[in-house]
TrEMBL record:
The lineage of its organism: Bacteria, Bacillati, Cyanobacteriota, Cyanophyceae, Nostocales. This is WYL domain-containing protein. It holds the Pfam family WCX. It comes from Amazonocrinis nigriterrae CENA67. Residues 240-313 form the WCX domain. PROSITE patterns: WYL (PS52050).
Length: 331
């Protein structure tokens, strides 16, 4: 037999519904009252607006007494800041959460890590002893200044209109940049603002728009974020470039693990594989290719083939110069 809706309703159910609604987003008292009136009616109870408002006030007071932090002022909505609702976790779940918190803390996200630690009431003993990290990020991204910058940037991402930043690559040397489409990217343990610069001119490519217009900015060097303009972002996507390269030697059986890479040809004898990658930032891709050393050869586009050749030539010249210097000093 189906359960009686009125029997499923009690003060705990009412409090849990308030928490559920506030967990979705901050809500004003009137909005909470409207949702909770529907909730009460669905459980076969009368929904008097004045009575619901009083219940909301009383219940939120009780939730605060239980250690659940809910912010509100006269002219602002109720906001769930932190919930201490108890969680029952298995040993594996505790280890998984503790490992995630450990990773975040070592990558410079100490505030986010502490949130996870409080959620699971975790200690260092919950972290598997076999895991050791060494990210050494340049900054703690939970520092107040950086946290404010991140929040402002996230607002601009939602607005999807052009804005400006003041970027100080060196102390006292600031420049204003016009920013179009943008997002946050974590690369090798460092968090960047990845952005399309609409008025940037490339020396590599003679067409617009191109990957040289994609720039990176370290968050700790962004001094300020300007207000959103009335100009919408120019494109739904960042400009990209397809690069084809051959893996051989120790990487002859290379299996792509990045979403932008696909195998387009495998040598029947297993001597090499040809990969096509869709890249949107040349410098990061160049770093990766140079790490592979003699196990990789760029096939196209030709401009990038020549650029990598020049890079290897410079490395070889420096090596020879060092060898000659050592030989002279030993004679």
């Amino acid at each position: 037999m189906p359960s009686n809706p009125s029997k499923d309703y009690n003060q705990i159910a009412f409090a849990l519904e308030i928490l559920r609604l506030l967990a979705e987003k901050p809500r004003r008292r009137e909005e909470l009252t409207d949702f909770l009136s529907i909730f009460v009616e669905q459980h076969g109870k009368s929904a008097d607006t004045a009575d619901i408002k009083q219940k909301v006030t009383r219940t939120i007071r009780k939730l605060r007494d239980c250690g659940i932090e809910i912010q509100s002022t006269t002219h602002s909505p109720y906001k769930l800041v932190e919930s201490n609702f108890p969680l029952l976790l298995s040993t594996q779940q505790r280890e998984a959460l503790a490992t995630a918190a450990y990773f975040l803390a070592d990558m410079g996200f100490s505030a986010q890590a502490s949130h996870i630690q409080r959620i699971g009431n975790l200690t260092e003993a919950d972290i598997p002893a076999s895991i050791k990290l060494d990210f050494s990020p340049p900054v703690d991204y939970s520092e107040k200044k950086v946290d404010i910058i991140v929040r402002q940037l996230q607002e601009r991402f939602e607005q999807q209109c052009r804005y400006t930043i003041r970027y100080e690559s060196k102390p006292g040397e600031g420049r204003i940049w016009d920013i179009d489409r943008s997002e946050l990217r974590l690369h090798e343990g460092v968090l960047y603002l990845f952005a399309f610069i609409p008025d940037w001119r490339s020396w590599r490519f003679d067409y617009w728009h191109n990957i040289d217009q994609n720039h990176i900015f370290r968050l700790d060097k962004i001094a300020s974020v300007g207000a959103a303009s009335d100009t919408r972002w120019v494109s739904c996507d960042f400009p990209t470039l397809k690069v084809r390269y051959r893996m051989s030697g120790q990487l002859a059986n290379y299996n792509p693990r990045r979403k932008d890479e696909v195998v387009i040809y495998s040598d029947p004898e297993g001597k090499f594989r040809e990969i096509e990658a869709t890249i949107d930032y040349w410098f990061w891709f160049r770093q990766r290719i140079l790490k592979y050393g003699s196990n990789v050869e760029i096939l196209s586009p030709q401009k990038l083939v020549e650029e990598i050749k020049k890079e290897y030539h410079k490395i070889w010249e420096k090596f020879l110069a060092k060898e000659n210097s050592n030989n002279h000093s030993s004679t």
